[in-house]
Design a protein that fits this description.
Layout lengths: L1 H11 L5 H29 L4 H5 L3 H10 L4 H13 L12 H17 L5 H22 L16 E6 L5 E8 L4 E4 L16 E7 L4 E15 L2 E6 L6 E5 L16 E8 L2 E8 L6
Antiparallel strand pairs: 1-2, 1-4, 2-3, 3-6, 4-5, 5-6, 5-7, 8-9
């Protein structure tokens, strides 16, 4: 009863004043507001990221990512201007999406070509920056993507297999198993499967799109039929030799191409024989 009487007097009993009542209600309101604010902050921190959140980015973050891809300051500023002008929703994706990067840079080139009041020298300078941006980003995005083991090969990969003391055969990877690679059995001249003895050493070469050529040593483990295809089982390899690396991505073009046979002749020069090459221009194809 004493507690109830104290509470009643605090809120508005005979001994309470209007000032104390106002202060009490203000304190309650402030406490409720603090609880609502804390709940809102916790909810905002824990909620999943929305597309609107993904669109937001800071210039500092964009420039930091650009530095990791090796872009100089002038190139970074140019790319950031293009991203803003094209209203790219997720600007940082230009570093990982080749299609988005191409689209953004193409729009920049079109805009540059139609720009007025720009000198020809300045136009060429900006165009060179745009082309260099593409080359730098593509070259550095492939850094560290070198093929280290055959366990990463994807089915459908075209292979060139050369058995010991034999001729090369074209084949493809049918499936990549844990303990071996399953490749289609090469076809002989008469259309029959070419089979080698178990343990026969093999030299395998492949070209990975937009990367490089690789070669590795393997051997025959056996034969089987996979998905209705006659296959040879070959050993995995963790020591792949990188044969070539392109500086830029391949482009498909349609241009006329002419072929000329080269005739090699041997000319004795004392005790040595020199080889001379001549182009048969009359036999152009």
């Amino acid at each position: 009863m004493i507690l109830l009487q104290t509470s009643y007097r605090f809120l508005g009993g005979p001994g309470a004043t209007s000032t104390s009542i106002i202060i009490s209600f203000a304190a309650v309101l402030v406490g409720v507001a603090l609880l609502i604010l804390i709940a809102a902050l916790i909810n905002r921190r824990n909620r999943p990221q929305t597309p609107a959140d993904a669109e937001r980015y800071s210039s500092a973050v964009f420039r930091r990512i650009a530095r990791t891809y090796g872009l100089p300051q002038a190139h970074t500023e140019m790319l950031e201007k293009l991203v803003r002008a094209c209203k790219v929703k997720q600007p940082t994706l230009v570093f990982t999406s080749a299609g988005l990067l191409d689209d953004t840079l193409k729009k920049g080139l079109y805009s540059l070509q139609s720009a007025r009041g720009v000198s020809e020298e300045e136009r060429e300078k900006r165009a060179a920056l745009i082309f260099q941006i593409k080359q730098i980003v593509e070259r550095n995005s492939r850094r560290g993507a070198s093929l280290k083991t055959t366990t990463l090969l994807k089915p459908g990969q075209v292979l060139t297999i050369t058995p010991q003391s034999g001729s090369p055969f074209a084949s493809r990877l049918v499936s990549n198993m844990k303990d071996f690679l399953t490749v289609s059995t090469p076809q002989g001249a008469a259309g029959a499967d070419s089979r080698w003895m178990r343990g026969t050493p093999l030299s395998v070469y492949l070209w990975r799109d937009n990367d490089a050529g690789y070669s590795f040593q393997s051997k025959v483990l056996g034969y089987d039929s996979v998905k209705g295809v006659s296959c040879v089982l070959i050993q995995h390899s963790r020591t792949l030799r990188r044969e070539q690396r392109r500086r830029n991505r391949r482009r498909e073009i349609m241009r006329a191409c002419f072929y000329y046979p080269i005739r090699i002749t041997e000319v004795p020069q004392g005790r040595t024989i020199q080889q001379r090459a001549s182009v048969e221009r009359s036999m152009r194809g």
